[in-house]
Amino acid sequence: MLYAVYIVMIKRKVDREDKLDIPMFFGFVGLFNLLLLWPGFFLLHYTGFEDFEFPNKVVLMCIIINGLIGTVLSEFLWLWGCFLTSSLIGTLALSLTIPLSIIADMCMQKVQFSWLFFAGAIPVFFSFFIVTLLCHYNNWDPVMLGIRRIFAFICRKHRIQRVPEDSEQCESLISMHSVSQEDGAS
Q1: Highest mean pLDDT out of 74-83, 160-169, 176-185
Q2: Distance separating alpha carbons of residues 144 and 81, to the nearest angstrom
Q3: Is residue 147 part of a domain?
Q4: Are 138 and 181 members of one domain?
Q5: Which of 21, 23, 24, 25 has its CA nearest to residue 6?
Q6: How confident is the model at residue 132 (pLDDT cuts 50, 70, 90)?
Q7: What confidence score (pLDDT) does residue 159 get?
Q8: CA nearest neighbour of 120 among 104, 96, 155
Q9: Domain count along the chain
Q10: Which domain holds residue 133?
Q11: Is residue 162 very low, low, confident or very high in pLDDT (cuts 50, 70, 90)?
């Protein structure tokens, strides 16, 4: 719910990317997280829900790398993509991370998955591409277009074609018309 509020408020307050200073925005997001979330660590520690301890050098290095690449860079690219396309496409693109990471596991680590994964991943990919096409072509309605084509195909079969009753008269008109055009050209 908070993620949805975040997306809607960003898009409502800032409609174009040049109106938002993205590094300053992420600086304030980091500052608010620092000020609002740090007391939670101590609260969890003193209530006994979770023990707080300072990380060693390896864990601290992993946290910093994950924070810079996994959070800051990915959030920056996502926000930039939302401004270039729409927040709907940006959110649907985030839904592609799970199937793509599983495909990467299959290729890199030779992990096997059941057919249920593929049965679930296909609609995710399909919905992303359909929504992207619909957002790209604002006035395009593929359902109405399909209905119109089907209706035109059905009507074409049942269309009444008029056959001239007197074919001699048509032939004489055609020959008269071609003679008058030849006279006008010379």
Answers
A1: 74-83
A2: 29
A3: no
A4: no
A5: 25
A6: confident
A7: 59
A8: 96
A9: 2
A10: 2-142
A11: low
